[in-house]
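Entry 14. Ran structure prediction on the chain below.
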Amino acid sequence: NLISLSNDYRAASDNKTRQDVLEKLLALSVKRKTTMLQLIEGSPQAVVENLFPKNIRQQLPPQLQENIEDEADLEGSLDVHIVDDFELKLSATLYFLDASDGKRYSLFFADDGPSLFSGSRIKIRGIRVSKKIAIRSSSAKENLRVLFQARPNRSVKKVAVIVFNFLNDTRTYPVDDIRTMIFSSTGFTTNSFYREMSFGDTSLEGRIRSDGDVFGWYTVNYNNSPCDSDTLSAWSVAARVAAAADGFVAGNYNNIIYFFTSTPACNWAGKASFGGSSSWINGYQGVGTITHELGHNFGVHHANTYNCYSGGVRVPISGSCTSVEYGDRFDVMNISAKHMSTAHKSVMGWYDANNIQTITATGKYALRPTETASNEVQALRIDRGDTGNRRYYYLEFRKPFGFDDFPRTAPVVNGVSIRLAPPHEDYGLFSRTLLIDTTSNTAEFSDAALLLRETFLDSIKGISITPTAISPTVSAEVYVWISPSTSACIRNKPYVEIFPSYRMARAGGTGNYNILLINNDSSSCGLSDFNIVNSLPYKWFYRTPASSTVALPPGGGTIIGFSVTVGAVPVGSYSFTETATHVPGFSASSSATLRIF
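Output, structure tokens:
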């Protein structure tokens, strides 16, 4: 091995023996370097654990030392890239450091990596192998220190598109088609997409041409393979140099889109600097891909779904959940051509303060559709109380509008969608949003929305959500239960609502009703039995069943059906009351009307 051969090298008594040993040392050091370069991408922790002893490395001949990994302390600007393979539903996050020594290094973290945007300035300590660095932990200050935390630029965008091809593939696409697809303010385009989603706040503009700046086509002096980070960077530099002759100046633009002929060597559809200014489009991928990659530039991550199980059965939420990449079909940060969710719109800064309400107490709350501008609340959120990384439930209501061209019968526009996401104010917690499947008895997330008077219960955190009113295209109303943070059992009056609140029937006829009942006790109280009794106006009104009993956990909700039958009573309106009681002194009532005609 290297250590014993190094000892032989120092002990050699003649030049020939020393030269022979040196050749063996060089071959072995090259083999070690090759192995470590391969290992660092898949298992950076293994590189950390097998660090060559520093004191022995220093004793190696100078020719060998550059082939042996070593600890490195570096400072520079972080560049984070998100790579999107929509076909295979695979994504990767790549970290680079443009260091003060003028070199660009690839960073590989033994954990999940830092929650930082491109442009952040950092200091790192890691194990350097050539231009790759393995880092033990992104959370330990001795391994990573943040000197400046960048925030994405989300203002009106000056955008340049540079289109190029290769020596071995000189295909092109019509430039005017690309210009229209990205910059046109009408139709199915990236610009119209952002204008609609942002209520007119974010648009894509050229600096030279009013209809958008597209430079090219240019044939760069490279073949289209391989497609690694170094070659992609070289292609981009060559494309910028070619575009400069046509008036391109990088500093004049907020964002640069590199659009090149499709190449299988790039096993992705799009790639973007997260919170940065550059994105790359592999072939004619369309409006959805370009909108998605710009979304990464603007600082939003992927729209995922949350797949949860309990006892082997799918449930809406549990302690055993996995994130499904690109699962949320109701957000362009999946790839579907639909509005960003309220969680992403909040991050983008498209809502005013009065459009976002944080719920901290049990009660009813109103919600306006997310697609059109409003002076009222369009995003409700509830702190889940997670330790470590904070997450909120973000609630939204959608309507058929523009790019959100949902059928009027679709669950997403007839219910309230719920997602888990970090608080939008915390730019240091970029993360995927997680769509909750509130109807987990089906295998699809197309019906994920929580429908009218259905209850989503997170018994782990003491939160439940129940839509109590839906006015299609206008508003939704939700009842939210939040359990106090206490180990004591705190009893509360339940929530009771009869629906419909008004019916008509002929004398001798029947009116059918339902009761929505929600247990408002604190989560420490356990299951409770509720007795439901009625107060009817006259002896010739009959309820079927005469009364009912139901057991509910704290925060749990249910719907109980019943009917009221009448005898030969005079024409008029008659009110009656239903009362639910589970502990003496803790009851609630609701009234409804039966109109006899």
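The CA atoms of residues 10 and 383 lie 65 Å apart. Will compare against last week's run tomorrow.
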